[in-house]
Amino acid sequence: MTNTAVPTGTPAAFDTDSTATAPAAVGTGNGRGTGLGPGPDAPIGAGRSGRHQLDDWRPEDPAFWRSTGAPIARRNLIVSIASEHIGFSVWSLWSVMVLFLGPEYGIDPAGKFMLTAVPTALGSVLRLPYTLAVAKFGGRNWTIVSACLLLLPAVPMAILIEPGVSYGTLLVLACLAGVGGGNFASSMANINLFYPQRLKGWALGLNAGGGNIGVAAVQLVGLAVLATAGAAYPRLVPAVYLPLIVLAALASARYMDNIRGVRNEKGAMREAARDPHTWIMSLLYIGTFGSFIGFGFAFGQVLQVQFKEQFATPIDAAYLTFLGPLVGSLIRPVGGWLADRFGGSRVTLVNFAAMAAGAGLVYFASRERSLPLYLIGFIGLFVFSGIGNGSTYKMIPAIFRAKATLAVSAGTLDAAAAERRAWRLSGALIGIAGAVGAFGGVLVNIAFRQSFLTYQTADAAYLAFIAWYAVCLVITWVVYLRPSRHRLTGV
């Protein structure tokens, strides 16, 4: 098994409930892992069996890493970032496309929020199977396949979107865009295999950040199309990505590698699902990542609906929509750094208070029709959701380290077994939380939709967000910070 990136606060390879035995040719020999990787006690093999097949992969061996491993890992990381970035952009296409859907399309705000909710839903559902596909098919092979799958939404969108297209067709196209949401999980699982433990945080942080910025990038593409061709040509936005998708698939085929012996370990996902902390952290991640991806999809349309006078045309909104996802992506590592310095649960607690305050400011600004305050509050929500993404992920390994320490003290497990169990369950929890958290983006868009349907404003949605952040704050305090004999130390 390979090491996870759990201590870095970024998603790593996840465990599963299926088994594929690992050949003895590959291994790190350290006994830690998420269940997605080479066998833990395998002897080291030698050489490649094919041009893109790594039979000898020892990232924890300093000599091997310096002479052979680092250049190979760097090459795979660069292509992985590019492919994942395009996947995130395709996933987020409808955050831009709805800005083009003017009166001639006959779609009200509630209908537009449904168009941004359905790709978020499919993307969240695909995260776990995409992760498992790395072990099943090989990291390089699956990166090629997942890149090619991005053509499924992009090609028909570039052909079919024009006035007169039915709303049902648009819903199908929006749902297909969800395939881009799975690319993040498989990309992170694959890159986790290439780097030694001491560099996983750096590598996975770059991989995650490069992907998340795809949300802002597609909005800049939309802005460029609006500024040059106008709102009458929405098909140009997905058309821009067609050659990029093909290039990503070709680059993956040319420059990436499969690591022989990667496997999905039996039972860790089931075991993690029985642990209450898995579902507690999943709820907290709905509040952080769910907010980030949900607001990223909805920000542009909310501006157009709430402030029609200032954002009379799509290009007016497009000038601002990329800012939130951009700062939220760039600030994420700060959350991990703060969690290292002050503790993940403390940072998460303060962060949810800040998110509630940000949502409160947005609500006040909406009632008062104050655009400057509205923008400050919304950008604040992006900033704090990014910080929360980092801090909540830092809590996950700390939870299982604390439980391992208790097990060793009680004599129920020896130190090595307790450490291995902690790493396995941390990886499995990250897999579950990543999928559940992404579904939070669906809830954000559904909240906006229902608010506009019922009250013709987004005010009810803002109140729901404030209430949810308050619930997350209370959960964080009661479970991880409230003084009691059951409190886990160091979380």
From TrEMBL:
Keywords: Membrane, Nitrate assimilation, Transmembrane, Transmembrane helix. CDD domains: MFS_NRT2_like. It comes from the Bacteria. It is a multi-pass membrane protein. Residues 28-38 have a biased composition (Gly residues). Residues 1-57 are annotated as: Disordered. Residues 280-491 form the Major facilitator superfamily (MFS) profile domain. InterPro entries: MFS, MFS_dom, MFS_trans_sf, NO3_transporter. The keyword Membrane applies. It is found in: Cell membrane. It holds the Pfam family MFS_1. The chain crosses the membrane at residues 77-101, 113-130, 142-161, 167-191, 239-256, 277-297, 317-335, 347-365, 371-393, 428-448, 460-481. Signal peptide: none annotated. PROSITE patterns: MFS. PANTHER family: HIGH-AFFINITY NITRATE TRANSPORTER 2.3. Belongs to the major facilitator superfamily. Nitrate/nitrite porter (TC 2.A.1.8) family. This is NarK/NasA family nitrate transporter. It comes from Plantactinospora alkalitolerans.
